[in-house]
Amino acid sequence: MLFLNNYFYSVEAGMCWSGPNREGRCNDLLKSGVTEDECCSGVDSTNSGITSTAYTEDLEAGKLFYFRALRGGVPCSRCKSTCEGVKCETGKKCALKSEAPVCICAPKCSRRKRKLGPVCGTDGQTYRHVCRLLKRKCRKDPTLTVDYYGSCKDTCDSVRCVESKTCILDHNVGPHCVRCKQYCPPVTPNSRPVCGVNNVTYSSYCHLQRAACLSGTAIQQAYRGQCKR
Fold first, then answer.
1. Its pTM surpasses 0.70
2. 19 lies in the same domain as 45
3. Is residue 181 within 8 Å of 169, Cβ to Cβ?
4. 2 located within any domain
5. What keywords sit in the KW lines (predicted)?
6. 156 pLDDT higher than 50
7. CA–CA separation, 52 vs 99, rounded Å?
C-alpha cells in the first residue's frame, strides 16, 4: 500500500516554472511538489501580473542540473496560451502579450467619471480625472486613493472633501482630507498623555488628533508624556 501511495504521488507531483524563454526552456523554478492543476490554475498572484507559468514532471537533481547548467533550461511549455480561464485581480483584465496571457491594469471607469474633472490623490499629485488615478493605483501604489476633487491646493480654502471628511493643513505635504474622530476614550489614571509640536499637552494621542482636526491644522506628536516647558 505504501508503494502505491508513493507511486501515485510521484505521478501527480511536478514542478511549476515561470514562463519559458524564446527557446522554450524554463529556468526560474517557482515551486516543486505541486500538481498540474495547482500550477496552472490561472490565478494571478504576482505583482507583475504575468500568468504564463509552465509545468513539467518532477526531475531528479542530476537531470535538473544538466538541463539548467548545460542546456539553457528545462524543456517546457506554457500552461496557457489564451486568456480562457485566467482570473485576474480586481481592476485588471487578461490580454495576450508575446503569445502569453498577461493581467494588465484596466480599472472600470465610466465616461461620467472622466467628466468629473481633476482629482488630488493622497500622494499629493493632481490627476486629470479619477481614471488616471486608478491606473496609477493599479500599476504603482495600491494605497493610493482620491483625497479630494479638484487640483491639489496649497490651503484648505477651496478643498472639497468627500465622505464627510474634514480638510486639515499639513505644512509638509499640503492640505489633505481626514475623518475627524467623534469620540475619544475618557481620561483615566492609565491614560498616556502626549506632547504636540505646538508645546501643548494632550490627554492622549486620540485627543491630539481630534484637536488637530477641529483646528484645521495638522499637529504632530513631539514625544510621549507631559510637555516639558
1. no
2. yes
3. no
4. no
5. Disulfide bond, Glycoprotein, Repeat, Signal
6. yes
7. 9
Please state the domain count of the chain.
3
Given a cut of 70, whether residue 48 has pLDDT beyond it is: no
Residue 152: CB atoms within 10 Å: 20
Note the pLDDT tens digit of each residue in 98-148.
777 778 888 888 888 788 889 999 998 999 999 999 989 988 898 999 999
Residue whose C-alpha cell is 516543486: 32
* 110 CA to centre of own chain: 23
Domain CATH for 20: 3.90.290.10
Q: Locate 117 and state its grid cell.
A: 474633472
Cα 225 from Cα 220, distance rounded (Å): 14
Q: What are phi and psi of 36, to 5 degrees?
A: -65, -40
CB atoms inside a 10 Å sphere around CB 221: 13
- Give the per-residue pLDDT at 52: 65
